[in-house]
Amino acid sequence: xxxxxxxxxxxxGQFKPLAEAGISPLDRGFLYGDGVYELIPVYxxxxxxxxxxxxxxxxxxxxxxxxxPLSTDGWKAVVLKLIETAPWExxxxxxxxxxxxxxxxxxxxxxxxxxxxxxxxxxxxVTTPPEVRATGVAAITVPDLRWSRCxxxxxxLLANILARQQAVEQGCAEALLxxxxxxxxxxxxxxxxxxxxxxxxxxxxxLMLPGITYDLILELAESHGxxxxxxxxxxxxxxxxxxxxxTSSTKEILAITTLDGQPIGTGQxxxxxxxxxx
Length: 278
Fold this sequence. Notes:
Layout: E1 9-11, E2 14-16, H1 28-32, E3 35-43, E4 46-47, H2 50-63, H3 72-85, E5 91-98, E6 117-124, H4 130-135, E7 137-143, H5 158-169, E8 174-179, E9 182-186, E10 190-195, E11 198-201, H6 212-223, E12 228-230, E13 233-234, H7 235-239, E14 243-248, E15 252-259, E16 262-263, H8 271-277
Parallel strand pairs: 7-8, 7-15, 11-12
Antiparallel strand pairs: 1-2, 1-6, 3-4, 3-5, 5-6, 8-9, 9-13, 10-11, 10-14, 14-15, 15-16
């Protein structure tokens, strides 16, 4: 166990200490980033929307033509075992499946006889400190240089990593990705804006990851009669917004109050983000 990863971890059907968990250096996840992942938040030892996360895992596996090594019930059993044995009440469960380890390096898929590598572990859930949530965070905009299947939650995240690192180097929490004049999402989050009391969100396309929290926010808005607009968000609309939010399973709802050094709205979290959070 480390301060970040609890023992045991799950690897290919077995629970074992992290120090004893090993994979082949020929694993395609290591060589190519050929795999998928999910991150499930856990509150008071209860997995949040586990069914939706496992469905998204399956959708990504289907998208890259990789067989799922476990059934839905099998994944649930793994998640519940990790939750039960970890020392934290609030956790983050990481699931990963790669295309396994062949006996050579080759771009083409290995034979079907090569089993996928299934890995999972629990970490403490790191959420936004109240003092940060109260003031909001800064973000930057960067060109969206990713591939065209951003709807798949794959482990090969180099473009996202470079964008997020650019934000970190400028003292910011997130990088918002601009493609052809439209804001698609953040490097590691979905993005909402508020203008004149209307909550606006980009549509689900192959250029955006369909977030579980994204769906939850739209459900909450509908249940409370909040006006919602699902449409592409132009960069000019983004900069003129009254509120901008970043959302994810770990960030939940977090106001972006400064964008490229300029204030969003009043420069403080807006009333709708406060209402949605509480």
